[in-house]
Amino acid sequence: MVFKKGDNVQLDDESDGGYVVAVSEDKNNVTWKNATGKITVSTAAELKEAKGMGAFFRSEGPDMIEIGENTAAFALIQGVTRNKVLGMQTFEFLVENALYEVLLKSYGREYTIISPLEEKYPLTQEQYDSWLPPMPQLANAANKAWGMILVDSLYRLARRRPQFNKERFIYILKTFAAVEMGNYGHNLWATRERESYKPQ
């Protein structure tokens, strides 16, 4: 079977599955990501199409986990800055993050307007071993935050709220910090390898 990016797949023995993130030019090697974000390269012969609710949750699992991690980080930032942890701003962040993950990232990530910064992968060994966030990961967080700010700008236009004020500037900083904290926190528990690592 010929697979394409975004297809839901599972191993022949159904022990694991996820969604396709890349396919080699000859269509023989398929790179896919499972629900915990682990990236695996398999031959097309080792995989089959996944269907049903299990396939849906495996393909959407990484995005759902990321939304949870980012929102938890934003709520933590709200608490540290003496704001209401589960207030309206946290809810707005949650909705904007979900819209970005489901719509913008899935269908528009290749466009410069959505992802203006270049994310250079794979990481070098020095970047991979460092406890500090590498530049490609920071660029990834900045691109995600930028996409969410685009969603927030449309929301503000609809609600006739100001686009340029101190509160908005602080929200932008919090958004970037929350996304990067989500990336960093995910790295502490998720299975990853230098050659294939890229934030979800």
Span between termini: 26 Å
SS-based class: alpha+beta
Number of helices: 5
Largest sheet: 5 strands, antiparallel
**What percentage of residues falls in helices of 4 or more residues?**
40-55%
Please indicate the percent range of residues in DSSP E strands (runs of 2 or more): 5-15%
Order of helices and strands: EEEEEHHHHH
> What does the average pLDDT come to?
86
User: Which oligomeric state applies?
Assistant: single chain
Low-confidence segments, given as residue ranges, are none
Instruction: Give the CA-based shape.
Output: globular
Q: Rounded to an integer, what's the Rg over CA atoms?
A: 18 Å
Describe the strand arrangement of the main beta sheet, using strand numbers. Answer: 4-3-2-1-5
Count of folded domains: 2
Give the total of beta strands. Answer: 5
Summarize the structure.
The protein has helices spanning 52-80, 88-108, 125-129, 135-159, 166-189; strands at residues 8-11, 17-23, 29-34, 39-43, 47-49.
What secondary-structure arrangement, pairings included, does this model have?
Elements: E1 8-11, E2 17-23, E3 29-34, E4 39-43, E5 47-49, H1 52-80, H2 88-108, H3 125-129, H4 135-159, H5 166-189
Antiparallel strand pairs: 1-2, 1-5, 2-3, 3-4
